[in-house]
Amino acid sequence: MKFYIVDAFTQTVFGGNPAGVVILPEGAAFPEDEIMRKTAAELRYSETAFIRQLSETEFNIRYFTPAAEVELCGHATIGSFVALLSCGMVKAGETYKNKTLAGDIQVEVTEGSILMDMAAPQYIGAIREAEAREELYRVMGLSAQGQGVVCADAAAGELSGANQVLAMGELIPELISTGLPDIMMPVKDEAELSLIAPDFAALAKLSERYAVTGVHAFTIHAEDGAVHCRNFAPLYDIDEEAATGTSNGALTYYLYRQGLLAPEGENVFIQGEAMDRPSKITSKLSVEGEAVTIRVGGSGVILAEGEIHI
């Protein structure tokens, strides 16, 4: 089996979020689940994608962490199509179907980036009670006081691109999914974001209790106009991740629900700074009737490739 190591959501090697990508031989079935999990553990990246080509325009991709299979992984999808483009299995300017456990998603390939549909966004619930919010922030190494305030001087255009601050008030943590459920956790500024130091054992238990992958912490109060964020998923053996497509898709929906971004604009998320692997993730939200569609994109760079002998 051919494998690649791809740095996703970056244009430079050693930036972004690395993913393993394994392309199965033509006509081959997926290996046993335990073999794929062990392969992911051997490659030692947060996620490894296993790709089976179904037709010229359709692929079936499964995603494994070192601990378990997950339904969808944004950065590993970006990495997968960067690898497929490199080996000539897809072409720039075309759109492909990716069949995943989270559903079928469309992936657009261009010369400069990969743009993929997220699963239909879902609002799962909110952490409203003061005691529950205090527990969450305490587990993350912070105090809950004043974390989710949208400042009174927030003006239209504070966020990147066409994002607009349309309302003021207090943001609270919410459970959102665009393929994988996460807790969206607002913090007041970049300084507070940098101070996060989770109790990983407690966070894993908390994630299990809320039935989420992990916590996606973010701040909208950044001088560069981007949304800065950090992602933690120790329940799946991922203490921190440098770029998370599904989580930023979910964050896009959260900010839209809060009136903090407008449809059709390009939204920019910066992640991985605390890991010295800065990543740039873009998203676009569209509304047609009652249907909300979210697409997440970015570029990628191949670091290594080789053969896996199984």
Q: How would you characterize the overall build of this protein?
A:
- This protein has 310 residues and is of the alpha+beta class.
- It folds into 2 domains: 2-117 and 299-307, Roll (Diaminopimelate Epimerase, Chain A, domain 1); 122-297, Diaminopimelate Epimerase, Chain A, domain 1.
- It is 20% helix and 36% strand.
- The protein is built from 6 helices and 18 strands.
- It has helices spanning 33-43, 74-86, 130-139, 190-194, 200-210, 245-257; strands at residues 2-8, 17-23, 48-55, 58-64, 69-70, 95-100, 103-109, 114-117, 122-126, 174-177, 181-186, 214-219, 227-233, 238-241, 266-271, 279-288, 291-298, 300-307.
- The protein has an 18-stranded mixed β-sheet that branches.
- Strand 1 and strand 2 (17-23) form a beta hairpin.
- The termini are close together.
- Mean pLDDT is 91; it is low at 151-158 and 160-168.
Keywords:
about 300 residues, alpha+beta, Diaminopimelate Epimerase, Chain A, domain 1, 2 domains, 18-stranded mixed sheet, 6 helices, 18 strands, about 20% helix, globular
Annotate the secondary structure layout:
Blueprint: E1 2-8, E2 17-23, H1 33-43, E3 48-55, E4 58-64, E5 69-70, H2 74-86, E6 95-100, E7 103-109, E8 114-117, E9 122-126, H3 130-139, E10 174-177, E11 181-186, H4 190-194, H5 200-210, E12 214-219, E13 227-233, E14 238-241, H6 245-257, E15 266-271, E16 279-288, E17 291-298, E18 300-307
Parallel strand pairs: 2-3, 4-6, 11-12, 13-15
Antiparallel strand pairs: 1-2, 1-18, 3-4, 4-5, 6-7, 7-8, 8-17, 9-10, 10-11, 12-13, 13-14, 15-16, 16-17
